[in-house]
C-alpha cells in the first residue's frame, strides 16, 4: 500500500493567507533553517573576529555535504551565490576564439543569454540560438543542437528550463558535443532536488541552485567543474584565496560575504530527508498535474504539452487576451488583489502561468486559484 504524504506547511513560515504557487523562482526557506541562519548571524555579530576565523572550516563541512547531495566530486565542487554566477565563471574560463560560436537554445534563461552576449562581444564571437519546439522529443533536441555545433566554442544548455519547465537530455548532448570537441556548460538552476545526481553526465561545467527545490537559503548554489578545467577556473571576485591551488577553497572565502546561508544550507537537506522527498516529489508531480488541469479548465485554456516536463512545474496556457508585456503589473495585481503568488512566462509567442508545487502545497491551493483567476484573466 502506497502512503500518501500530507502537506507540511507547518515547517515553513509562509503567510497562510496567501497561495504560494511559485516556489520555482525564489524558493522558500524552512523554519528550522531560518533559525540556524539567525543563530549564525547572531554569533557573527557577537564577535566578528572570531566568526570570520571560523568560517573557512565551517564552509568546508557544508561544502562537502552539498557536494555529496549532488553525488559530485568534492574536489571539483565550488560554492557560488547562484547559477548565473556559475555560468559566468564557466564562460570566463573557456577559450572563446574570435569568430567562434556560443550556442544556446531559445529556452535559455534571460540572464544566461545576457552572459553569452557579453562574452561574445568581448571575444568577437557570435551567439547562436537554436530554436527547440516546446514539445520536441530528446532525439529532436540533440539533432537540432548538433546542427549548430560546427565552429562552436561552447554549448550552454538548460538542464531544466526556467521559462518552459522542461528537462533536456544532458547526457546525450554532452556526448554529441564532445564528439565535436565542444565544451558544455549546463545551467542546472532547477535541477538540485528534481534530478538525482544532476551533475553526473560529464559536462565540462555544471551549476545549480540550492535555494529552489532543496529549499536552502537564497544565494546558495554550486559549480561543478571537470578536472581538465579546474586549474583555470577562478571566482568572479578576486580575494585572498586567489592563489589557492584547490578549486573549492579558491571560491570559499570572498571577503565580508554573508556566509550564514551556505553554512545553514545542509539543514534544509535534512528537512527534505525527513519529508521523504523522493516519494513526496513523485506525489507532488501528480498533485500538480491535477492542479494545473483545474486552473486551465477555469481559464478555458489547456496545460501545455512539454516534451519532458519537470517534476514539480507545469505550464498553463494564458487566455489570448492577456498581454505579456504587462506581466509584472499583472503579477503584482494578482498578488495584491487575489492573494496569490504566481509567475508568468512566454515562449514562441505563447503566454503561460508556470505553476509550482512543494511540500507545503495541497490541491486546495490550486482549487482556490482556479476560483480567483478567472475574475482577472478569463
Structural class: alpha/beta
Number of domains: 2
- Count every beta strand, where a strand is a DSSP E run of 2 or more residues: 12
Strand/helix succession: EHHHEHEHEHEHEEEHHHEHEEEHH
End-to-end CA span? 41 Å
| CATH secondary-structure class of the largest domain | Alpha Beta
Q: Let me know the CATH homologous superfamily of the largest domain.
A: Type I PLP-dependent aspartate aminotransferase-like (Major domain)
CATH topology descriptor of the largest domain: Aspartate Aminotransferase, domain 2
Overall body shape? globular
Main sheet attributes: strand count, strand direction, barrel closure = 7 strands, mixed
Strand order of the largest sheet: 2-8-7-6-5-3-4
Relative strand content: 5-15%
CATH architecture of the largest domain: 3-Layer(aba) Sandwich
| Share of helix, binned | 40-55%
Structure, described:
The structure is a single chain. This protein is α/β, with parallel strands linked by helices and 378 residues long. The chain has two domains: 125 residues, Aspartate Aminotransferase, domain 1 (Alpha-Beta Complex), CATH 3.90.1150.10; 238 residues, Aspartate Aminotransferase, domain 2 (3-Layer(aba) Sandwich), CATH 3.40.640.10. It has 13 helices and twelve strands. The protein has a seven-stranded mixed sheet with strand order 2-8-7-6-5-3-4, with helices on both faces. A three-stranded antiparallel sheet has the order 9-12-11. Strands 1-10 form a two-stranded parallel ribbon. Helix 7 links the parallel strand 5 and strand 6. The radius of gyration is 21 Å and the shape is globular. It starts with 18 loop residues before the first strand and ends with a helix. The model has no long low-confidence stretch (mean pLDDT 96).
